[in-house]
Amino acid sequence: SPQVEPDPEQPPAKKIAGDVAVVVDHYNARPEVGLAQRETSPILGLKKFNNWVKSVLISRFAHPALKESKFVIRGQRGTSRGKILDMGCGKGGDLNKWAKARPAELMAVDIAAVSVDQARSRWQQLRGPSFQATFAALDCYTEPLSKAFAPAKLATPFDVVSMQFCMHYAFESIQKARCMLENVSRWLRPGGVFIGTIPNADQLLQNLEGVPPDAPDLTFGNDVYKIRFEDRVHKPLFGHKYWFYLQDAVENVPEYIVKWDNFVQMAADYGLHPVYKEEFHDVFSEHREHPEFGPLMVHMNVVDADGESAMDEDQWEAANIYIAFAFEKR
Ligand code: SAM
């Protein structure tokens, strides 16, 4: 094929290498499956539970921030309010959850360009009153958001920044974690919220300690998930790496421990202060009797009408390798 001359006006495309290349290839290669196939997943119960946890986080912390937003669009279909940044948006699995909040605008970024295209298509197919949305591919842990979006797109601040199941990839190094926090905070209004879900470092490190000294490698887990550490010695704060497998979802991808106290301390440098942190099992027990989130659990098929869980024991154990959090910008 003919050689394409590089455009001298454009900076050369950044070469993705190292662990992050494994992450990008993995997420780009995962096919987008339709609704019908999604329902046949062997870990359907766990996927529904994770979605329910995200819905609780969004309703409890993002909805109030969106309601207080000064960014309002009045249209033929009524009033929509507030602006969201979904960082590490993946294939747009949270778009329906956001639609329920009736936001004015959503901006979404992910390093996996194929996933970003799929998220954009999903948004185009949303039924009912929708919202403005812009999607872009960006390595949010090495590059500023302003590289993906024109200044005018960033002129109105965000009310909510959401990072679901993706922030831990930034904890490879202090530089990446700081770049991520800068992107979260820089365009978030005071009083705005930052919500997310990350692996539960205490749980992971406790399990690592339980691996017998004579075990062939540093692996633990069950049929649903497996984690293999490379190093028993805890790296001080960043780069404590493990390989993660989750049935029908993640095929051995490098991830990093997020030490909560270190994360909180660093976040404070960016004006972000924690208002909520809970293990997924506790999110469940805290909200199962809640007048809104209890029935939502039945509606989302996390439990049936008799309260019977859709998860088996292995899925339930895998659920608790995560925590949910919310921060407020002050
Ligand atoms: N947030 C989505 C959800 O909850 O369905 C997707 C979660 S998926 C487990 C993790 C996502 O993090 C992937 O889409 C991956 O491409 C993204 N990611 C990893 N490193 C990233 C980076 N440096 N910048 C932006 N996104 C990144």
Topology readout:
Layout: H1 19-29, H2 35-38, H3 44-67, E1 72-75, E2 78-81, E3 83-87, H4 95-100, E4 105-110, H5 113-124, E5 132-137, H6 151-154, E6 158-164, H7 174-186, E7 188-199, H8 201-209, E8 218-221, E9 225-229, E10 241-246, E11 250-256, H9 260-268, E12 272-279, H10 280-287, H11 293-299, H12 313-319, E13 322-329
Parallel strand pairs: 3-4, 3-6, 4-5, 6-7
Antiparallel strand pairs: 1-2, 7-13, 8-9, 9-10, 10-11, 12-13
The structure holds S-adenosylmethionine.
Please tell me the overall pLDDT. Answer: 93
Quick one: overall form?
globular
Uncertain ranges? none
The SSE string, one letter per element, is HHHEEEHEHEHEHEHEEEEHEHHHE
Distinct ligand kinds: S-adenosylmethionine
Query: Largest sheet, if any?
Result: 7 strands, mixed
**Proportion of helical residues:** 25-40%
| Rg | 20 Å
Helical run tally: 12
From the helix content, strand content and strand pairing, which structural class follows? alpha/beta
What's the total count of β strands?
Answer: 13
Strand content: 15-25%
Distance between the termini: 55 Å
Spatial ordering of strands, largest sheet:
5-4-3-6-7-13-12
